């Protein structure tokens, strides 16, 4: 999902990138809207509609990253892809194609907070900091990157590498330090909005929660099947109190951050679920993608969805979206 929650981007092995418009609510009764302009009802629908397809990507898409303002979308390819693409989502125009060397492998990327710089890298040892003109501003030699994350201070970058670590890199000071050491490969990770907790998907181990400040493992979440697939998990909910992850058993798992046992599992996909994304604004929406070539949108069952009027809230039997899917 985009930072404002109103767009959803998906990429696939066929090199297609599709942008969807998100419509969390609709008018329940248009007649009321016309006759009584000061009073109308809105009903949560949690729908998405295909908007545009971004053309020009010549490899399968392995990773997507929205710019902080939601205007640009960055795409990486598989291991044999030496290029990186940046699109203007509003116009569908390719803003930048970064090609530094034909020997590169650029499979991971992340935006800095100001949206003017980004980092990218891959498991062949490339790790670059670049600007929107495509210039490589800085590089770190010999870091084999699986996943990247730019921290909120605007200068620190976290990188999961092939030595089962997450290290912190400061390009301005050319300093680095070890934060996390796992015993198995870290396939992906994400950081919550407080910039303190990291959620890792670890080969054969599942989903681990780490405290970046105290450098300690907080919790191992149970239930998910994690082999050697690249699976992406996420934080969600108003205060990032919930966690979702895909799984190789074709399910989506949901947990509360303080309990290692899942609240529920979401079934419907017929092959491995490789990525989930919780809407950062409309917290009742969760998207999942799978090797079955489908995108699914999850939300509260109809009886738990809220109705609103422009005068006052009309409270229905509402419950936690993470418990009533």
How would you describe this protein?
The chain has one helix at 30-35, and strands at 7-11, 17-27, 41-54, 63-66, 72-76, 83-88, 93-99, 108-111, 117-121, 127-131, 136-139, 145-150, 156-161, 165-170, 175-181, 186-191, 197-202, 206-211, 216-221, 233-236, 242-245, 252-256, 264-266, 273-278, 286-290, 295-298, 307-309, 313-314. It has a domain at 57-181: YVTN repeat-like/Quinoprotein amine dehydrogenase (Methylamine Dehydrogenase, Chain H), CATH 2.130.10. The chain has a 5-stranded antiparallel sheet with strand order 1-2-3-27-28. With 325 residues, it is mainly beta. Helices cover 2% and strands 48% of the residues. The longest helix is centred in the first third of the chain and has 6 residues, at 30-35. Mean pLDDT is 87; it is low at 27-42 and 309-325. Strand 12 and strand 13 form a beta hairpin. The protein starts with 6 loop residues before the first strand and ends in an 11-residue tail after the last strand.
